[in-house]
Amino acid sequence: MDYVLGIDFGTTSVKIVVLDHITSQQLYSSNVKTDADVESVIGEAGYEQNVGKIYEALEKLVLQIPDELKNNIKTIGVTGQMHGLVLWKTPQASDLGLMKCESSNLYTWQDQRAIPEFLSLLPVPDSHIPLATGFGCVTYFWLLQHQPHMIKHFDWLGTIMDHFVFSLCRLEHPATTSQLAASLGFFNTQTNTWNIEILKTRGFPVDRLPRIVKAGTIVGQLVDDWHCIKKGVSVLAGLGDVQCSFLSSLLCQNTVLNMGTSLQLGCIVKQDNFKQPDSTYIQHFPYFNEDYLALAASLNGGNVINQFVQMLVKWMKQFSVDISENDVWEKLLKESENVTLDEHLEVKPTLFGERHAPSEFGSILGLTPKNLNLPQLFNSICFGLIKNAQAMMPVEFLKSHNIERIMGSGSVLSRNPLIRNHLKEVFKDFTFVDGLDCDSATGAALCVIKYCQN
User: Fold this and answer.
1) pLDDT in tens, 367-384
2) If you count DSSP H runs as helices and E runs as strands, how many of each does the chain have, helices first?
């Protein structure tokens, strides 16, 4: 028996799956919320998470895997939230172990500390991917300017996946893939190299960056047993969660709209067909096998709906009414089942801005006495999220790439039939396929099966 463990470090939760290496059949799956958000010292602009809490959540999941499965895990694939930054120290001999490696908080992809004025002062990268706030190297430049004494304390920098693999395998030097390197910024995907000279001119410590390996590369082994997963199990370099989500979805499909905390709509572009993009909305990120993922990545997805739910809970508390978020969710979905869209009501639900327009936020137009009710407003928010995705990646773009089908995947689509219906309506020119069983953890495990190499 030869099993594969897939791990996904999501923005709000950690998920694991176990697949059979031969059949790709899913044998086990579990997830848990991390509750890792912490208050940033810079206030609302900072989006940070406690790395220790994230790992605690993972270890709980690993402990719950049945022993008969854990004993036969031979390889581990790791994926998670892109763009974010973790700083860490090389552990001393007395501090070995996943939970003992000293690190900073995780500065997530949602981080807003790098305002447009700060971005305009950074050097221009040698890359077709423009810089944005929340990109790891951008965040590091901000820390270099505002908290230089804090960052000098650390030896390495990278994504949380890079930190995890480094710690789990006790590597001498961190390793990453082009998928994650491109998400940090200042990385040329065609030469597969960091912008070393450009970074050096601004005092960026380039020797702290991870080395680059091909997606699917084994970079280390477990040096000890890990909750009954045996010493010597191979571990792959970290992968992007979007790429893994698409890998799990695109085995038989053309394109994917994935909605979890954020939203991504994209399709695969073969290496031979890649050209420098002329759209500010669509970016091309490294995929597998040297292909590219043409991606419209919105910062607004399930996080917008969660904000709406949390707002309702807070409003009710102000009237001394206690109601849980789950109860609000259940009520919203039930009351909105048979509600039709109001032609006057238009919600632009970009609460978090977009990378191409960080200062343009959400709005509501066309309120009338007839549509000023909860089901209509909730319905229009859901519809607005899908319309925003369509605006970023228009139907014409998809048709120009010979797209015929769209698969809907992600945690929000799996539990929100309203969103699924709007997706079918907005993209009615394409055949809709449910991809409710597709996710990033599964994609990380599938990468082992399809692309693993030493």
Assistant:
1) 999 999 999 999 999 999
2) 16, 24
Q: Would you say residue 51 has pLDDT above 90?
A: yes
Residue found under tokens 């930054």: 85
Residue 31 has pLDDT above 60, yes or no: yes
pLDDT, one tens digit per residue, over 414-430 is 889 999 999 999 999 99
- The pTM assigned to this predicted structure is 0.90
Q: What is the distance between the alpha carbons of residues 51 and 385, in angstroms, rounded to a whole number?
A: 30
- CA-based angle 298:303:306, to the nearest 5? 155
Yes or no: say if 117 and 145 are a contact pair by the CB < 8 Å rule: no
On the 0-12 / 13-18 / 19+ scale of CB atoms within 10 A, 250 is: buried
Instruction: Answer yes or no: is pLDDT of 94 > 60.
Output: no
> Within 13 Å of residue 174, how many CA atoms lie on the same side as its CB?
29
Euclidean distance between CA atoms 267 and 246, whole angstroms: 8
Q: What is the pLDDT of residue 454?
A: 66
Strands (E), 169-310: 175-177, 187-188, 193-194, 211-213, 218-221, 234-236, 239-240, 255-259, 263-269, 282-286, 292-298
Q: Give me 330's structure tokens.
A: 């259940």
Q: Which amino acid is at 2?
A: D
List of residues 6+ apart from 219 with CB closer than 8 A: 165, 169, 171, 175, 213, 235, 236, 237
